[in-house]
């Protein structure tokens, strides 16, 4: 059997080639069962590929080939014939299948191209639709934005109108308040003036009121000196009596006979009687001196009360002068504030006009941007046409390109003319805005000058404390009816004062005697420095009184010089400030006069008052009135004040920035 198979393989050379080559030549299976199996399998697995089918056919052919080779030689010949027939039929079917595949592939390619073409057309249509929808949406959005802008513009105009009305109402209200305040200050100024005249009159009466008391005090002091002189004589006599009594007592103790002792005792009795009389006189003189001292104390107390009253009136006079100065400066400050308020009223329409012009400028910028974009697109399109014109091969194409270029150039010219119009309008708006800024800057500079003047006035007012109402002039009724404090002293105090007077006189007598003894020992005249016949006690008293008067005069002179120096410093500081305020260039002064004249005319039309130009100048270089007291400027500030000032400046700067932002982006 094996030998037959080998012979069969040698006899059929195709069996030596690979199966894939045999299949490639179109070998067709004719076995019915196999074809039925393949058909059923194809129906079950309709999703298999052609390659999988070929592989399966190869496996089945291999199996059948092995099975055929195992058959008998008789069947092999029949099989060869059948295989040949099948091979021819398979080649024919393969050609048909390839033709069908080619046609199907061509049809599929046509369908795919048609589908892609339809898809491209659908995409183009969708792009066109989206573009049109986007354009419509943009147009609708632009219309809505334009409507919103118009509404916003109307709202801004309404807000602007409300702001201007609010500013006007506030100005009217503040003007009314200022008028009331001016009336109140005028009334207060009248009261201060009346009080100042009353104080001047009262101060002039003080020397006349003091003169009787001073004369009375001089009389009492002279009487007191006479009594002290008498008391010194009495004390000297008492001392002589004591001395003589001591001598008599020594004689009495040394007497040897009764007559001599009796004489000494009688003399001692007489001396004791004289001593009693002397002591009674001493008590009487001491009481009289004490009475005079009490009267002098009462007079000095009254004089001190009058001096205190005079000092209080002088202090009040200075306060009134300061208040008058403060009222005068406040009046000047109110005038300047009024000018500043008028400037603010002038600024409001300028700000509104500038905001409106800036809005128009923004719209012009937007239109200019759109035109520039269109111009850029036209230039690009013109460049493309120029390139196409260069590449044109025929005359018709060149003519068509040139016509398109003509249309593009016409559009370009039209766009450029629109751009010129918008640019001219923009330049015109910029010129108007610049003019408004220039006017606004001039007004702000004038406002800054006025505010600087207000700050200078505030510096002068810093230490002036206003009084709500002028103080009533104190009653100048004499207070002589008041009982002095010394009269309420008890009897024991009187005795002590009496003893003090006596002891003081004794001390002065002892001091005078010691001085006399020293002068005698130095062989100098006892009373060389004093007038003849003038007692030592009186000389000492005159020296004490002289020293007291010198001290009083020195104190008064020092106080007067200090006050004069302070007044000079204040006047100098005031003059320096006024000089600084008065240093204005001729151009600024001329501009200021024109500005004040213009404001004055408006104010005259509005309120029926005189022009500002006819009013008195706010500050002059003339010497201030003699009655006005000017405070000196503070030289240094504490660290807390500096920190507080910096914080206030920062807050003020922040508030100004916020106000500018709101005016720029919210209200205008």
TrEMBL record:
<feature type="coiled-coil region">
    <location>
        <begin position="210"/>
        <end position="463"/>
    </location>
</feature>
<feature type="compositionally biased region" description="Basic and acidic residues">
    <location>
        <begin position="82"/>
        <end position="92"/>
    </location>
</feature>
<keyword id="KW-0812">Transmembrane</keyword>
<feature type="region of interest" description="Disordered">
    <location>
        <begin position="69"/>
        <end position="92"/>
    </location>
</feature>
<feature type="compositionally biased region" description="Low complexity">
    <location>
        <begin position="521"/>
        <end position="535"/>
    </location>
</feature>
<protein>
    <submittedName>
        <fullName>Uncharacterized protein</fullName>
    </submittedName>
</protein>
<feature type="region of interest" description="Disordered">
    <location>
        <begin position="516"/>
        <end position="569"/>
    </location>
</feature>
<keyword id="KW-0175">Coiled coil</keyword>
<feature type="compositionally biased region" description="Basic and acidic residues">
    <location>
        <begin position="536"/>
        <end position="569"/>
    </location>
</feature>
<feature type="transmembrane region" description="Helical">
    <location>
        <begin position="643"/>
        <end position="663"/>
    </location>
</feature>
<keyword id="KW-1133">Transmembrane helix</keyword>
<keyword id="KW-0472">Membrane</keyword>
């Amino acid at each position: 059997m094996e030998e037959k198979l080998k012979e069969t393989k040698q006899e059929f050379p195709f069996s030596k080639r690979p199966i894939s080559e045999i299949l490639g030549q179109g070998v067709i299976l004719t076995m019915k069962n196999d074809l039925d199996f393949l058909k059923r399998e194809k129906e079950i697995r309709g999703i298999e590929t052609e390659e999988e089918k070929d592989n399966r056919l190869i496996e089945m052919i291999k199996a059948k080939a092995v099975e055929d080779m195992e058959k008998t030689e008789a069947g092999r010949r029949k099989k060869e014939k059948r295989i040949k027939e099948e091979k021819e039929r398979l080649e024919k079917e393969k050609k048909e299948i390839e033709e069908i595949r080619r046609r199907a592939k061509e049809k599929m390619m046509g369908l795919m191209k048609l589908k892609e073409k339809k898809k491209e057309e659908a995409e183009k249509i969708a792009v066109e639709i989206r573009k049109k929808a986007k354009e419509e949406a943009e147009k609708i959005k632009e219309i809505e934005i334009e409507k919103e802008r118009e509404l916003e513009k109307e709202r801004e105009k309404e807000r602007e109108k409300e702001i201007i009305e609010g500013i006007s109402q506030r100005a009217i209200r503040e003007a009314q308040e200022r008028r009331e305040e001016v009336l109140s200050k005028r009334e207060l100024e009248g009261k201060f003036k009346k009080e100042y005249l009353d104080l001047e009159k009262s101060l002039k009466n003080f020397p006349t009121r003091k003169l009787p008391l001073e004369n009375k005090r001089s009389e009492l002091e002279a009487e007191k000196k006479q009594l002290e002189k008498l008391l010194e004589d009495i004390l000297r006599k008492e001392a002589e009596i004591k001395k003589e009594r001591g001598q008599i007592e020594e004689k009495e103790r040394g007497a040897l006979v009764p007559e001599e002792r009796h004489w000494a005792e009688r003399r001692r009795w007489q001396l004791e009687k004289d001593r009693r009389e002397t002591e009674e006189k001493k008590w009487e003189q001491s009481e009289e001196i004490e009475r005079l001292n009490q009267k002098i104390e009462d007079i000095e107390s009254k004089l001190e009360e009058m001096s205190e009253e005079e000092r209080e009136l002088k202090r009040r006079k200075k306060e009134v002068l300061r208040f008058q100065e403060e009222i005068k400066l406040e009046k000047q400050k109110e005038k300047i504030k009024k000018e500043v308020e008028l400037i603010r009223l002038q600024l409001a329409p300028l700000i509104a006009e500038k905001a409106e012009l800036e809005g128009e400028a923004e719209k012009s910028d937007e239109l200019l941007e759109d035109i520039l974009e269109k111009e850029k697109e036209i230039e690009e399109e013109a460049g493309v046409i120029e390139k196409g014109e260069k590449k044109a091969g025929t005359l018709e194409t060149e003519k068509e390109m040139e016509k398109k270029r003509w249309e593009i150039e016409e559009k370009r010219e039209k766009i450029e003319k629109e751009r010129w119009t918008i640019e001219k309008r923009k330049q015109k708006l910029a010129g108007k805005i610049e003019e408004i800024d220039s006017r606004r800057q001039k007004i702000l500079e004038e406002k800054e000058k006025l505010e600087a003047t207000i700050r200078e006035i505030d510096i002068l007012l810093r230490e002036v404390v206003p009084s709500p109402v002028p103080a009533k002039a104190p009653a100048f009724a004499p207070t002589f009816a008041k009982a002095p404090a010394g009269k309420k002293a008890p009897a024991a105090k009187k005795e002590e004062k009496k003893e003090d007077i006596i002891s003081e006189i004794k001390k002065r007598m002892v001091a005078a005697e010691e001085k006399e003894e020293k002068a005698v020992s130095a062989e100098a005249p006892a009373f060389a420095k004093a007038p003849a016949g003038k007692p030592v006690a009186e000389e000492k008293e005159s020296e004490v009184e002289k020293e007291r008067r010198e001290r009083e005069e020195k104190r008064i002179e020092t106080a007067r010089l200090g006050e004069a120096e302070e007044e000079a410093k204040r006047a100098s500081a005031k003059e320096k400030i006024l000089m600084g305020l008065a240093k204005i260039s001729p151009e600024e002064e001329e501009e200021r006069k024109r500005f004040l004249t213009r404001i004055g005319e408006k104010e005259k039309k509005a309120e029926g008052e005189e022009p500002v130009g006819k009013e008195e100048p706010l500050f002059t270089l003339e010497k201030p009135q003699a009655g006005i007291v000017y405070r000196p400027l503070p030289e240094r500030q504490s660290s807390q004040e500096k920190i507080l000032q910096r914080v206030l400046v920062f807050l003020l700067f922040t508030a100004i920035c916020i106000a500018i932002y709101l005016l720029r982006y919210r209200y205008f």
